[in-house]
């Protein structure tokens, strides 16, 4: 993979002179205020235009003073970093379920050819807003006929291809263990905005729930999440966004559902995927060093980050300020010797600026994270499991199936184990389920959301 080339501009002689005149003697207040209004992402563009223009003497003055320095915003190290270089000859392939989509017929994974069967939007009413994300607004709702609760996910304008992918994946996974059920797909007739209707889960925010969980609770829910991951992987699908926000837990019913399949993708061996997936704190090293032929094992890294946060009571466990700093935070725990071995194995060359940013660090023992507040959770079996999940080399991580069958026999829940009564916590939700708020239509919620554009291409 080549280094991303810098942007080039062709400027006519006439416009070059006009630009040079402007840049040679800018009005200080005007120019500085203009630069201050430029977004962070546009500043490199402004700098390149400025540096490409050759100053010419002002026609109304005989002064030949050199132009003032034009770079009030020094380039940061992060802005200098380019994509990593991957040399040929070290391809990566999933250790399990690698040929699922090779064997299955094309219509199983060819989501672009999906024909969506639309339900009736007016069959559902909105109760209250429960969340929002980059690509959607999420509401609690009810079915008008039987008053059955549901979750309504109103999608923001995105490419038709992405919406079809999410729908196709949800349809393929329907009925799988601990996979959220897609009940219906509806669309507003005027704006063409689609909404996905899901089963309702009486979720408790993880920031409230996790601090109350016992050792046994954590074992139980991690095992339930592994069931969902093994099932989706066995169906040839990577989730690519595993994190606490996407794991709904009804603690009273001890029910877990893996949700938000908007970034999920079908796995094909040797295919190169976009590394701009997963949330920063849960991104695997493969994403941070631009290894594009990643696989299901990405989800196991994200699970490891989530699990480490639970047993060490440190959320998030790796707290990077940006994607580059995220790799630094990982290196400060796992060390740089193993990182360099990983890069060497897959023939990856980091940009020198990123390599300098990462620096050199020794591996930190997991026992350093144990304290009086988490020692009842950070038992040896739990630490051993974290150590197996949080490996630089994605091929060294256990698969979800291996984790359930081999690595967790001494740690995670299995039907033969019964918890002690004091180990099971019950969280009383604050929402009174008997209180019914005023209902609104899906269309009215669309009109309230300024982000939802009125025009959209037909499916």
TrEMBL record:
GO biological process: regulation of cell cycle
Comp. bias (Basic residues): 57-67
Family membership noted in the UniProt record: Belongs to the protein kinase superfamily. Ser/Thr protein kinase family. CK2 subfamily.
Domain of life of the native organism: Eukaryota
Function according to Swiss-Prot or TrEMBL: Casein kinases are operationally defined by their preferential utilization of acidic proteins as substrates.
Enzyme Commission number, as recorded: 2.7.11.1
Catalytic activity: L-seryl-[protein] + ATP = O-phospho-L-seryl-[protein] + ADP + H(+); L-threonyl-[protein] + ATP = O-phospho-L-threonyl-[protein] + ADP + H(+)
Family annotation (Pfam families): Pkinase
Coiled-coil segments on the chain, per record: none
Record SUPFAM superfamilies: Protein kinase-like (PK-like) (SSF56112)
GO CC annotation terms, alphabetical: cytosol; nucleus; protein kinase CK2 complex
UniProt GO MF annotations: ATP binding; protein serine kinase activity; protein serine/threonine kinase activity
UniProt keyword annotations, A-Z: ATP-binding, Kinase, Nucleotide-binding, Serine/threonine-protein kinase, Transferase
SMART domains linked: S_TKc
Protein name per Swiss-Prot or TrEMBL: Casein kinase II subunit alpha
Annotated ranges, domain Protein kinase: 124-410
């Amino acid at each position: 993979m080549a280094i991303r080339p810098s942007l080039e501009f062709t400027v006519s002689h006439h416009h070059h002179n006009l630009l040079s005149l402007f840049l040679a003697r800018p009005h200080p207040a005007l120019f500085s205020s203009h630069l201050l209004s430029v977004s962070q992402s546009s500043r490199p563009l402004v700098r390149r235009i400025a540096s490409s223009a050759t100053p010419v003497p002002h026609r109304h003055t005989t002064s030949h003073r050199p132009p003032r320095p034009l770079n009030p915003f020094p380039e940061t190290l992060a802005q200098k970093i380019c994509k990593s270089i991957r040399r040929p000859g070290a391809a990566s392939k999933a250790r399990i379920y690698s040929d699922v989509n090779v064997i299955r017929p094309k219509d199983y994974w060819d989501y672009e050819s999906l024909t969506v069967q639309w339900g009736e939007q007016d069959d559902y009413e909105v109760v209250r807003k429960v969340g929002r994300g980059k690509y959607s607004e999420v509401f609690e709702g009810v079915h008008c006929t039987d008053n059955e609760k549901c979750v309504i996910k109103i999608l923001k304008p995105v490419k038709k291809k992405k919406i079809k992918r999410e729908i196709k994946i949800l349809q393929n996974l329907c009925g799988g263990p601990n996979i959220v059920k897609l009940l219906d797909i509806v669309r507003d007739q005027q704006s063409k905005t689609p909404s996905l209707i899901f089963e309702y889960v009486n979720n408790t925010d993880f920031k409230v729930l996790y601090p109350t969980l016992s050792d046994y609770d954590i074992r139980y829910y991690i095992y339930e999440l592994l069931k969902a991951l093994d099932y989706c992987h066995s169906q040839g699908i990577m989730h690519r966004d595993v994190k606490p926000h996407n794991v709904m837990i009804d603690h009273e019913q001890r029910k877990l559902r893996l949700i938000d399949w908007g970034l999920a993708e079908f796995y094909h061996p040797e295919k190169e995927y976009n590394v701009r997936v997963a949330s920063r704190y849960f991104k695997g090293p493969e994403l941070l060093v631009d290894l594009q032929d990643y696989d299901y094992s990405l989800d196991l890294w994200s699970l490891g980050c989530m699990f480490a946060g639970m047993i060490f009571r440190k959320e998030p466990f790796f707290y990077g300020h940006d994607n580059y700093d995220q790799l630094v935070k990982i290196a400060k725990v796992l060390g740089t010797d193993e990182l360099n071995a990983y890069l060497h194995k897959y023939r990856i060359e980091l940009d020198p600026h990123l390599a300098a940013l990462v620096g050199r660090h020794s591996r930190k023992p997991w026992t350093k994270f144990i304290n009086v507040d988490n020692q009842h959770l950070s038992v040896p079996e739990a630490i051993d499991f974290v150590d197996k999940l949080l490996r630089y080399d994605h091929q060294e991580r256990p698969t979800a199936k291996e984790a359930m069958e081999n690595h967790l026999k001494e740690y995670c829940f299995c039907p033969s184990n019964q918890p002690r009564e004091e180990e099971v916590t019950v969280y009383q939700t604050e929402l009174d389920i008997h209180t019914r708020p005023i209902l609104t239509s899906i269309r009215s919620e669309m009109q309230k959301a300024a982000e939802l554009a009125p025009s959209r291409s037909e499916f």
